[in-house]
Design brief:
The chain is about 30% helix and about 20% strand. The protein is an alpha/beta fold. The chain has an 8-stranded mixed sheet with strand order 3-2-1-4-6-5-7-8. An 8-stranded mixed sheet has the order 11-10-9-12-13-14-15-16, sandwiched between helices. The C terminus is likely disordered.
């Protein structure tokens, strides 16, 4: 395997040569450095740094810890040399750029302000708000990438993030509501099953919010992993769990380099008995999650399950707290209805999760092909950010959780559906009803679909009322047609 030629192998089908012919200027690298990281994964090679002497700030700790007296530029130079030594960025101190990204500290709601005439995108970040920084970074990177690729026009806008009891909100004006930085989870033990794009991203985000780790993944780092995952080219060939264990040090890490799912659920049971985690992140996107989730439910272990749909255009994140009687992961698999599906290439196995109830004998098979290929780091990082936020909440005692998570748990809307893109079908309807990129909506027991009046979950035994019926009414064809027409056009007799 050739590291130079394979590095961008999994993004080229989506973006071709990507941003290799673009130049982007950055000001305030402590804030905008994560955007640069996401754009570099889309093949941005030319970077103009307007403030090269800026001191490194706290957001850069996700890249690499600043050494004494280092500037933000020096930290990022080391980071990108580690990520991809074969294709170094071209760093310019001055010169023209296709647009400029500016980071600045501020109070009030996190915001992104676009000045189309000046070709400037400004990020305003409250000090210490880690998840706001992640939200803004993914939003700006996605917008800039699409503008530079000619997929959309740069337009004047102001977008405010969070507030109003929903941390994923995006609005054209500031919304009142409480905001807070991630709470410390001292002494907490996090298990991550699947250390790929989402799993390694979660480890990167929560690296200093967990006291110790258990990492599960049997695969080695390949040449195309570093472009989207928390690995460098020098780690190609290492087991992923071992590479991450070194990076998470000095936190203790139990590295398990094998599957805990379909082939050996007994190993997982022994692991939970010997060293019970405070939360488990299931991020394999395979049928292993289907086998692991019931074991975690039976053991009463909180877990967060992440799935990316093809090209990571859409995704779902389910939070399961067995001891608080939330729906389990299998309650929602194949039972929820959110609207018309995406028209992106999607195998029947994936579509069946949302649009039909799989037979018990087919369930394992249907978990196989939920993969996010091809996708860019912008999309998969967004998924990891949402998972991380949910995992932090799952580790907290009920009285310390955010209001939005308390509401999700109280209403049984613990499955989040997220959009990294907006897709309008030929008939004008929006895929899954999602109206803007970055949107996250709650799904739950009021979204259950099926032909029966009630559905019983094969895993946890929960009885769920069917809200969206998928069978036609009884009667002759004329009566059925009239009934359907009447439902579609209420004015008909």
């Amino acid at each position: 395997m050739n590291a130079r030629s394979d590095y961008f192998q999994r993004v080229r089908p989506l973006i071709g040569q990507g941003l290799s012919r673009s130049a982007v200027a950055f000001r305030g690298l402590s804030i905008t450095g994560r955007v640069l990281d996401l754009l570099a994964a889309c093949m941005l090679r030319t970077v103009v740094v307007r403030e090269p002497d800026e001191a490194a700030g706290w957001p850069l700790s996700g890249e690499c810890a600043a050494r004494g007296g280092e500037s933000a530029l020096e930290v990022l130079r080391r980071w990108f040399a580690w990520k991809n030594e074969h294709e170094p960025l071209e760093w310019r101190a001055d010169g023209p750029a296709d647009l400029e990204i500016v980071g600045e500290w501020g109070f009030g709601a996190p915001a992104v302000i676009v000045d189309a005439a000046a070709r400037t995108v400004r990020m305003r970040l409250p000090p210490g708000d880690r998840f706001a920084h992640l939200d803004l970074s993914c939003h700006v990177a996605r917008e800039v990438r699409d503008v530079l690729l000619g997929r959309k026009l740069l337009q004047d806008s102001s977008t405010f993030f969070g507030g109003g009891g929903w941390p994923f909100a995006q609005a054209p004006r500031e919304v009142a509501g409480s905001r807070r930085a991630p709470l410390p989870v001292a002494g907490k033990h996090v298990m991550v099953v699947g250390c790929g794009s989402v799993g390694s991203g979660v480890a990167r985000t929560l690296r200093d919010l967990a006291a110790r780790w258990t990492l599960v993944d049997g695969s080695p780092v390949s040449a195309f992993n570093p472009s989207r995952q928390w690995f460098g080219l020098g780690e190609v060939g290492m087991l992923k769990v071992e590479a991450l264990a070194e990076r998470l040090a000095p936190a203790p890490v139990c590295a398990i380099s094998q599957s805990l799912g379909v082939k050996d659920t007994g190993l997982l049971e022994r692991q939970l008995a010997d060293d019970r985690p405070d939360v488990v992140v299931l991020a394999t996107g395979t049928r292993d999650d289907a086998a692991i989730a019931p074991t975690l439910w039976s053991a009463g272990v909180p877990h967060v399950v992440a799935y990316a749909y093809p090209q990571a255009r859409f995704f779902e994140v389910t939070t399961v707290l067995p001891e608080e009687h939330t729906p389990c992961a299998h309650c929602f698999r194949g039972h929820l209805y959110r609207g018309v599906e995406s028209q992106a290439p999607i195998p029947d196995e994936v579509a069946s999760f949302l649009y039909s109830r799989p037979e018990a004998s087919d369930r394992d098979r249907l978990y196989v092909d939920l993969v996010a290929e091809p996708a860019t780091k912008i999309e998969t990082s967004r998924i990891a950010d949402v998972v991380s936020r949910c995992a932090v909440e799952a580790m907290l005692e009920p009285g310390r959780r955010s209001a939005w998570m308390a509401r999700m748990l109280a209403e049984g809307t613990t499955c989040l559906l997220g959009a990294n893109a907006v897709e309008r079908r030929e008939d004008g309807r929006l895929a899954y009803g999602m109206t803007h990129a970055g949107q996250v909506v709650r799904l739950g027991l009021s979204d259950v679909a099926g032909a029966e009046e009630r559905i019983t979950c094969e895993s946890c035994g929960r009885r769920m009322d069917v809200v969206h019926r998928t069978e036609l009414p009884e009667g002759d064809e004329a009566a059925v047609d009239l009934g359907l027409l009447g439902a579609l056009e209420p004015g008909l007799p």
